[in-house]
Amino acid sequence: MRSGRGGKTVRGATARRPPNRDALSLRHGYWPRNTRASVCLTFDFDADSAYGDLPVTGLTVRSRGVYGAKVGIYRVLELLKRYDLPATFFVPGYTADKYPDATLAIVRAGHELAHHGYFHERPTQFLNDPGAERAVLEKGSAVLERFIGARPLGYRSPAWDLNPDSPKLLARAGFVYDSSLMDDERPYIMDHGDGDTLVELPIDWVLDDYTHFQFAPPMVQGLSAPSKVFEIWTDEFEGYFETGGCFILTMHPQMIGRHHRLKLLEKFIQFMMRRRRHLFLASCIEVARHTLQRLA
Questions:
Q1: Which pLDDT band, with edges at 50, 70 and 90, does 18 fall under?
Q2: What values do phi and psi take at 140, rounded to 5?
């Protein structure tokens, strides 16, 4: 049944949004099994592709990303297994090509594999060049298809840097959802006309480990104390829980995989699990399909 708030979003697309209880909160009963809110644990498995667009790509710089493929990814997978949690991994095609064992480990653990460019290309590189953007989408999808036996259904823009035409391009390429925009705390559907729709799963930098931990002077100082990040993430989680939002945590194996940060993630999981029976803990594609079912 079609319901919810309407409105405009990127490039004039019509947005279908969930029904509100009031100006800020979802109505109870929106999420499956009468849960109060949804949670998606997501990981951008960039490895060394994350540094491909930087002017300095020396061996030491790139090795920081390699740490995620050699060490961090396996620590993350072990932690998720211990708590029996689903997750979505956004993987550039280059990463899957270069680190097939790590990519297979994600798939064999039952997690969702989603698109993140081929070599971490920002869509804003392709302004007014949709053909080049389509080529990158096709190249990345073809690689991931070898691992999962089907085209990936989800997309996240590298550096969260969509260009205005990207959502319509993604919809026409067969993607079910995108997770790159920051204009809400609840999933919604973008209608582009001619039957082209795309679910948006909104994110924010405050729920990304990169901004808190990445050390890349002078742009990003990072190296925050985990206790500070724990306070921010738990307070945000409480807000999402109270208002019925979709709490999407974004992490990178090369950052969250360090010992002290992994302890932070486990501590946060333990905090969150106190409310497990009231949460829809799901992969991004599960949330996107639920959104389509509720708002179609």
A1: confident
A2: -65, -40
d(CA 143, CA 79): 26
How far apart are the C-alpha atoms of 181 and 160, rounded to whole Å? 7
Q: Are 249 and 89 in contact (CB under 8 A)?
A: no
Share of the chain above pLDDT 70, in %: 91
Calculate ∠ Cα 3-5-10, nearest 5°: 120
Fold that domain 30-295 belongs to in CATH: TIM Barrel (3.20.20)
Chain Cα centroid distance, residue 179: 5
State the Cα–Cα distance between residues 248 and 39, nearest whole angstrom.
6
User: For the chain, which residues make up each domain, given as ranges?
Assistant: 30-295
Kindly state the tokens that stand for 156. 């996240």
Q: In terms of pLDDT, which residue wins out, 24 or 119? A: 119
Nearest alpha carbon to residue 252 among 78, 101, 75: 75
- Find out whether the peptide bond into 218 is cis, omega within 30 degrees of 0: yes
Q: Would you say the C-alpha torsion 137, 143, 148, 149 has a positive or negative sign?
A: positive
How far, in Å, CA of 194 to CA of 30, rounded?
A: 28
Record the tokens describing residue 183, joined without a space: 């204009």
Tokens of 42: 């997501």
**Angle of CA points 225, 90, 170, to nearest 5°:** 130
